[in-house]
């Protein structure tokens, strides 16, 4: 599904995983260049671990973590997820967003954010129901998410499956999020951040969920 069309910045386990879904969450339609660094041994290049996920502390046993995932509502909305109950989050082509999905665990919760909408904002809650696995669209030449540089034996792109938890009583717009002092430091509110998948603190998650219940 999505990560929403990853916003130009971003969904049921697929009934046929091999078939590219029309639902997608992705940070951009273009395949991102793999960030690399040169190692001291032989000059080999390896992917860097970048972005907000890199600063997360080790996960404690049984710890639930919280995230925000973006989807354009005309691609796959919270209502679509409520109807289908689960969906794959394919189409992510940004390494920071991919790394966030790799860090997800079953039972983690995410704010479901409608991007490129009127208004854009948090519309519901979803849950991680399947751990990161290779995104089949990266190997499909007919898919807009095809990546000729990704190999089946070493897939570059991953996706997770998410399940419906709830639709908020009202969409919490981006402007409303920015107006909340309690949400200071939230990744999505930082200038220039367009990632389709980002970590969220428990305090921020609980606060946004409470806003949606008012």
List its traits.
alpha+beta, ph1033 like fold, six-stranded mixed beta sheet, 8 strands, 15% helix, 26% strand
Would you kindly provide a written description of the structure presented here, covering whatever features stand out?
The chain has 214 residues and is an alpha+beta fold. It has a single domain, classed as ph1033 like fold (Roll), CATH 3.10.590.10. Helices cover 15% and strands 26% of the residues. The chain contains four helices and eight strands; from the N terminus they run E-E-E-H-E-H-E-E-E-H-E-H. It has a six-stranded mixed β-sheet with strand order 4-7-6-5-3-8, with helices on both faces. A two-stranded antiparallel sheet has the order 1-2. A hairpin with a 6-residue loop joins strand 5 and strand 6. The radius of gyration is 17 Å and the shape is globular. About 19% of the residues have low confidence.
Short summary of the structure?
By secondary structure, the protein is an alpha+beta fold.
How are the SSEs placed, and which strands pair?
Blueprint: E1 36-38, E2 45-47, E3 66-71, H1 78-84, E4 86-88, H2 95-103, E5 109-114, E6 121-134, E7 158-173, H3 174-178, E8 197-200, H4 202-213
Uncertain runs are 6-10, 12-47
Sheet with most strands: 6 strands, mixed
User: What is the class in the CATH system?
Assistant: Alpha Beta
Strand content: 25-35%
Topology, number of strands: 8
Number of domains: 1
Q: Please, what is the average pLDDT?
A: 84
Helix content: 10-25%
Tell me the quaternary state: single chain
Helical/strand content category: alpha+beta
CATH-derived architecture: Roll
By DSSP (H or I, 4+ residues per run), the number of helices equals: 4
Order of helices and strands: EEEHEHEEEHEH
Q: Please identify which CATH superfamily we are dealing with.
A: ph1033 like domains
As a whole number of angstroms, the C-alpha radius of gyration is 17 Å
Distance between the amino and carboxyl termini: 29 Å
